[in-house]
Amino acid sequence: MNMTHYMELLAVNQPWNLLIFMAVPVILAETVAVTELYLLYTRRYHGAVRTLNRTASIVVGLYFIGVFAYLVPNVVVPLTSDGGWRGPIDVVAVVAYLAGVVPLAGIAALDLGLIGRGLKDDHARMGLHAAFVGLFLIVAHIAMIAGMTDPTLAGGVMPQQPAHGHEMH
């Protein structure tokens, strides 16, 4: 089976890579998304649901900054410098996955008070928060769809044997 590096990352070192690179960030992001809907609908920006939303937002943002900081030098840079990419679908999958750092770091920064201090009220802050969540959902789904696509469909070439150092362990 032909796999993108994104899918290979999730498939190797079972179950750890799946938990580290998919389950933890997705469960936290989905917790943020679901609690966000409740908060925006009820406009109750204080209490247990907001605390859960804020905590999950900060944790997922900081967590994904760590994922990004690990994957870029250990995977993206070597793949790029050695020409190890499996075609455009492979690049889209990995770049879209890593692009999740922007909205996830954004929600963490917002909840840590690093950005958005000039917004007029809690509802405006939650609106920006929701925009970050929406952006994350877009890039995460692009990553998942591209990641599950056979990279050879867009002219990608699969190596006969993985080159040493390009495995996403």
UniProtKB/TrEMBL annotation:
Which stretches are transmembrane? 20-40, 52-71, 91-115, 127-148
One Pfam match: DUF6803
Q: Does the keyword Cell membrane apply?
A: no
From the broadest rank down, the organism's phylogenetic lineage runs: Bacteria, Pseudomonadati, Pseudomonadota, Alphaproteobacteria, Hyphomicrobiales
User: What does the UniProt keyword field contain?
Assistant: Membrane, Transmembrane, Transmembrane helix
Organism listed in the record: Blastochloris tepida
Q: What is this protein called?
A: Permease
- The signal sequence is none
